Amino acid sequence: MKTIVTLVAIVAFLTSCNSNKKEQVSKTNLTQQEVKTVNKQAKHLKPFKSELPTIGLLMFDGVLQGEVIATSDVFAKPNQDFEQLFNVITIAETKQPITTEEGMHFIPDYTFNDCPKLTALFVPSGYDMYAQVRNKKMIDFIKQKNKETKYIVSNCAGAQLIGASGIADGHKIVTYIGGGKQLQEDYPNLKVQNDSLVTFVEDGKFSSSNGNLTSYISALNLLEKMTSLEHRKFVESYLYIDRLNNWNE
């Protein structure tokens, strides 16, 4: 009798385990399906279209995320007919997640090795650029992309990477407020502008800003050059830029 009871208990236990496993598998499959659905929707929303101009956003550990987001915020907006006008991609040295200065994690779309042809490259900054200006792979990438791009934009201390690369020697550039004197000493071939007076400057294919929220200025300026004043105003209305102008009203 005891043997029969023991066998019944074992069968019940195994049945329960199998039932739990089936339930877990079912939940796992459901989760995977949900992930596939989300990925499919994301690709549908912003597919890479080879016929469109491509805007490249350089990233690295410690990058100020607002300077990456500002550019994507401007160029990823559709036109008034809800048509995609640009490919907006992020690029880093590897595919490993980037940790921003603010602590968020961004996964790059491309690396220095597989980055597609760019129409414009945006170079952001970080609070500590020591490692970046000494990163030969990054400097070489900027030099290489300068050969194919129509526009190069730096924001804030991203000007240091431009200076280290030498691509804008002889051109006007501006950096973060208070950083111009050191930038000029480090890279004497640059025409560094007075950052206490100049927010944004453009010289040939190169443009630059003080960074942070003024990164929207450099992005919107280039957007107008690549599209039209009408589209720039449309994007500004999309972003509620006028509400910032009327902050206290």
What kind of sheet is the major sheet?
7 strands, mixed
| CATH C-level | Alpha Beta
Tally of individual domains? 1
* Helical/strand content category: alpha/beta
Percent strand equals 15-25%
Oligomeric state of the chains?
A: single chain
Q: Over all CA atoms, what is the radius of gyration?
A: 25 Å
Q: Helix content range of the residues, please?
A: 40-55%
Order of helices and strands: HEHEEEEEHHEHEHEEEHHH
Walk me through this protein's architecture.
The chain is of the alpha/beta class and 249 residues long. The protein has one domain (51-245): Rossmann fold, CATH 3.40.50. It is 45% helix and 15% strand. It has nine helices and eleven strands. The chain has helices at residues 2-45, 65-75, 130-133, 136-146, 158-165, 180-186, 215-226, 229-238, 241-245; strands at 54-58, 87-92, 98-99, 105-106, 110-111, 120-123, 151-155, 172-173, 191-192, 200-203, 206-209. The strands form three sheets. It has a seven-stranded mixed sheet with strand order 5-2-1-6-7-11-10, sandwiched between helices. Strands 3-4 form a two-stranded antiparallel sheet. Helix 2 (65-75) runs parallel beside helix 7, helix 4 packs across helix 5 (158-165) and helix 7 (215-226) crosses helix 8 (229-238). The chain is globular.
